[in-house]
């Protein structure tokens, strides 16, 4: 396993990087502007309702977990502007070697292929650099945009988890999608050395099938 933090991942105008102190105003503005857009998909606390930690708290907690290698919290930056966030957490090692991926994006930037590219960058990093074997994404059946993301990434559907996560004030069903390292490089199944996974396999496949939108932001 090779874990480096802070971490920056790039694909042309798309940059994934840790949130910084100077991002606070942009981050808070994004969350305010997209409150209604994100509400149906935001996790909530069944006891305390919708609790969004202050930016400073969120950043400190993410940094601590990231240094330990149990989380990758990355801002989605396009052409120098913060547009959303993608997080791999929890990251488990030992016999499981798996990670769960979550993400959100500014409504104005949705539908341009940014999230699939960001997810592909993170998945490739998890496989090639961190020795993770399986990446999972859970999606509410009503979330058509996120279902399109997992379709583009060729994540395998594994069924429905009933009342899996407390979202938007209630326990919600979630569909489960996953991909394993050997599905990208079958000849190297079971190996964890980064050289054996070919680096950017998921991203390369995505860009071949869905060339990125290059319209100005």
From TrEMBL:
Biased composition (Basic and acidic residues): 188-207
Origin superkingdom: Bacteria
Pfam families given in the database record: Acetyltransf_3
Domain N-acetyltransferase: start-end pairs: 14-182
Stretches the record annotates as Disordered: 188-217
Annotated keywords: Acyltransferase, Transferase
Entry-linked SUPFAM superfamilies: Acyl-CoA N-acyltransferases (Nat)
InterPro entries: Acyl_CoA_acyltransferase (IPR016181), GNAT_dom (IPR000182), N-acetyltransferase (IPR051531)
Family: Belongs to the acetyltransferase family. RimJ subfamily.
Name this protein carries in UniProt: GNAT family N-acetyltransferase
Organism: Brachybacterium epidermidis
């Amino acid at each position: 396993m090779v874990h480096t933090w802070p971490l920056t991942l790039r694909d042309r105008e798309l940059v994934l990087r840790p949130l910084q102190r100077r991002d606070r105003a942009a981050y808070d503005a994004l969350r305010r502007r997209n409150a209604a857009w994100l509400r149906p998909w935001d996790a909530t606390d069944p006891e305390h309702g919708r609790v969004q930690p202050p930016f400073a708290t969120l950043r400190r907690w993410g940094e601590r977990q990231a240094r330990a290698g149990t989380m990758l919290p990355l801002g989605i930056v396009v052409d120098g502007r913060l547009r959303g966030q993608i997080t791999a957490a929890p990251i488990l090692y030992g016999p499981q070697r798996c990670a769960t991926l979550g993400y959100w994006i500014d409504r104005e930037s949705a539908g341009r292929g940014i999230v699939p590219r960001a997810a592909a960058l993170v998945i490739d990093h998890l496989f090639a650099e961190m020795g993770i074997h399986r990446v999972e994404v859970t999606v509410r059946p009503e979330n058509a945009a996120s279902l399109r993301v997992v379709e583009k990434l060729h994540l395998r559907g594994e069924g429905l988890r009933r009342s899996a996560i407390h979202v938007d004030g209630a326990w919600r069903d979630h569909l489960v999608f996953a991909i394993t390292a050997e599905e990208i490089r079958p000849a190297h199944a079971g190996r964890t050395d980064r050289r054996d996974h070919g680096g950017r396999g998921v991203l390369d496949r995505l860009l071949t099938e869905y060339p990125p939108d290059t319209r100005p932001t």
